[in-house]
From TrEMBL:
RCC repeats: 34-87, 88-140
Keyword tags: Repeat
Source taxon at top rank: Eukaryota
Name this polypeptide is given: Protein RCC2 homolog
Matches recorded under Gene3D superfamilies: Regulator of chromosome condensation 1/beta-lactamase-inhibitor protein II
Length: 197
């Protein structure tokens, strides 16, 4: 096996890589064929209320639950992972408890759940996730728009309040300001383990 001077081994079997996503506990790679590979912890989220038994995956492994979806982008949050399909559909894996992301799955769910509601028939071109929320850049007949869903603590969903949204909701302020967004980005700020947004 050939190694560079840092000890890294080349990934020979993945083909060309189109995109990567990095989280605190795992990394996701997407091939030019839309295949998803992951390594790090073997889960797609962290549980807030219980200790989750996980094992470490030390080499990229194909994510079997995503083999039927041609993935073009992935984003890793703390409580969930999201992927975007070539058809413009958003899927989330885990953290659907209490219907925070429009589905009612538990933190250990590794099956992709389509993000329904307002985005069900609107193509999405980019996603971004923070600690506990998701932003989606979508194509509307009038131009680009941004939808948000998840935890609204600190007003980060862009709706003029700090309410949580269980279904994707259009951020209307861009239209009021006559601004057409061209990309989305999200982040995480943790003051301590109990206060992250």
């Amino acid at each position: 096996m050939v190694q560079d001077n840092l000890g890294w081994e080349p990934l020979k079997t993945l083909g060309s890589l189109d995109q990567s996503a990095v989280g605190t506990d795992r990394t996701i790679l997407i091939s030019d064929a839309g295949e998803v590979y992951a390594f790090g912890k073997d889960c797609f989220s962290k549980s807030k209320s219980e200790v989750q038994e996980t094992k470490l995956i030390t080499t990229p492994q194909r994510v079997k639950s995503l083999t039927e979806i041609f993935v073009v982008q992935a984003a890793i949050g703390n409580y969930f992972t999201a992927v975007l399909s070539r058809e413009g559909r958003v899927y989330t894996l885990s953290w659907g408890s209490d219907e925070r992301l429009g589905n009612d799955t538990d933190h250990s769910c590794s099956l992709p759940q389509p993000l329904l509601g307002a985005l069900e028939n609107i193509p999405v071109v980019q996603i971004a996730v923070g600690f506990c929320y998701l932003l989606a850049l979508a194509i509307q007949p009038t131009g680009m728009s941004v939808y948000s869903v998840g935890c609204g603590l600190g007003g980060k969903l862009g709706h003029g309040c700090d309410d949580c949204e269980t279904q994707p909701r259009l951020i209307e302020q861009f239209g009021f300001l006559n601004i057409e967004p061209v990309m989305v980005s999200a982040g995480t700020l943790c003051v301590d383990d109990l206060f992250c947004f």
